[in-house]
Specification:
- This protein has 396 residues and is an alpha/beta fold.
- Helix content is 37%, strand content 18%.
- The protein folds into two domains: 126 residues, Aspartate Aminotransferase, domain 1; 230 residues, Aspartate Aminotransferase, domain 2 (3-Layer(aba) Sandwich), CATH 3.40.640.
- Strand 1 and strand 2 form a beta hairpin.
- It is globular.
- The structure holds pyridoxal-5'-phosphate.
- This is Acetylornithine aminotransferase.
- It catalyses: N(2)-acetyl-L-ornithine + 2-oxoglutarate = N-acetyl-L-glutamate 5-semialdehyde + L-glutamate.
- It is found in: Cytoplasm.
Length: 396
């Protein structure tokens, strides 16, 4: 008999599993109930078992699951039209994950420059330190993190790295071979670092001057997470290409690459493809997610709840300066920069019934569902206060 676990060991999983979710809450098989501020890493943005999403998926499941992109898929056309109407974009390509959305964006930029200049001239991409773009070969090269690259060399060529937020460094790093800039509006995995004021606008101007494609990685920040449909709206800029994924399917795997004007038609028939991308199930759920996100007042409410939650977190930081350094982020993509080990706070929070996610730079990331209510915020604040009190050695 084999002693090798059937599942490959690429995740150090917690010994915790769930059999049911409801709104902001998860029910574990150990009988406990957890307030879910992890949201499957910013994915279940409308909470668990949202009735409108359940209805859309089950209705579609009874009709048609898959037919391939060899045929027209009406739900796909509809979702594309709605994303176009609600954003900077003129056209959309669907795929199944964040990394695939980044891959499509990188391929689009290369192809755009190839067609424009009649050959492989501007094929390199400017990327930033501390970035995260996924775990495929191209996206680990773009992210450039040693912990993701180690042992997988040789690394794909063509990425030039500059410090995040440093416009002058970006300008200085452009060469005659640079064709694109790829950047996150808020570095999520990298520790919840929002772009400094003026940075994205500066990159926009730079891309215009130099004829570069400005690609934003909104895989985590997109689909309402920041209280706007896309994070770049807060910076008042128009990107060329945006990759998004996590919140788009509310837990159903789907990704999208959005592009405007001259970039919209680059990936012509035969240049790129995906068997599963944009299948009827994913599209039915994506349309249902948009129904909720774009409903009157929904994003306003996200912003209001985000401000309430943030104020509570600021108060916590003021009360426990020995444990917590600061609150970072925008909307409901919030990071608590810790002075204690972030793993200790995460574990204490779990003991109190609150799930959150680590991020680099010793950060505890809070990614509640956008649908959370004031009662959920109060429950989370109570868990946070008890966890901090315990870590600070107060009797609770
Ligand atoms: C999660 C994430 C990705 C990768 O998405 P996958 O669906 O895991 O491939 C890429 N970029 C950012 C900013 C992310 O947060």
């Amino acid at each position: 008999m084999s002693t090798i676990p059937a599942l490959m060991p690429n995740y150090a999983r917690l010994d915790l599993s769930f059999d049911r979710g409801e709104g902001a809450w998860l029910h574990a098989t150990n009988g406990r109930r957890y307030l879910d501020f992890a949201a499957g890493i910013a994915v279940t943005s409308l909470g668990h078992a949202h009735p409108h999403l359940v209805e859309a998926l089950t209705r579609q499941a009874g009709k048609l699951w898959h037919c391939s992109n060899l045929f027209r898929i009406p739900e796909q056309e509809r979702l594309a039209e709605r994303l176009v109407a609600a954003s900077f974009a003129d056209s959309v390509l669907f795929c199944n994950s964040g990394a695939e959305a980044i891959e499509a964006s990188l391929k689009l930029a290369r192809r755009y420059q190839f067609e424009r200049l009649g050959g492989v001239r501007r094929w390199r991409t400017l990327v930033t330190q501390n970035a995260f773009h996924g775990r495929t070969m191209a996206t680990i090269a773009a992210g450039g993190q040693q912990k993701h690259i180690h042992g997988f060399e040789p690394v794909m060529e063509g990425f030039d790295r500059v410090p995040y937020g440093d416009l002058e460094a970006a300008r200085a790093a452009i060469t005659p071979e640079t064709g694109a800039i790829l950047v996150e509006p808020i570095q999520g995995e990298g520790g919840v670092h929002p772009a400094p004021a003026g940075y994205l606008a500066g990159l926009r101007a730079l891309a215009d001057q130099e004829g570069l494609v400005l690609i934003l990685d909104e895989v985590q920040t997109g689909m309402g997470r920041t209280g706007t449909l896309f994070a770049h709206e807060l910076d008042g800029i128009v990107p060329d290409v945006v990759a998004t994924a996590k919140g788009l399917g509310g837990g159903f795997p789907v990704g999208a690459c959005l592009a405007r004007g001259p970039f919209a038609g680059v990936l012509t028939a035969g240049t790129h493809g995906t068997t599963f991308g944009g299948n009827p199930l994913a599209m039915a759920v994506g349309n249902a997610v948009l129904d909720v996100l774009l409903a009157d007042g929904f994003l306003e409410q996200v912003r209001a709840h985000a401000a309430t939650l943030r104020a509570g977190l600021e108060a916590l930081v003021a009360r426990y300066p020995g444990l917590l350094a600061e609150v970072r982020g925008r909307g409901l993509l919030l990071g608590l920069a810790c002075r204690c080990p972030n793993a200790d706070l995460l574990s204490a929070l779990r003991d109190e019934g609150l799930l959150a996610v680590p991020a680099a730079d010793n950060v505890v990331r809070l990614l509640p569902p956008l649908t959370l209510g004031l009662a959920d915020i109060e429950a989370a604040e109570a868990c946070l206060a008890r966890a901090c009190a315990r870590l600070a050695g107060e009797t609770v």
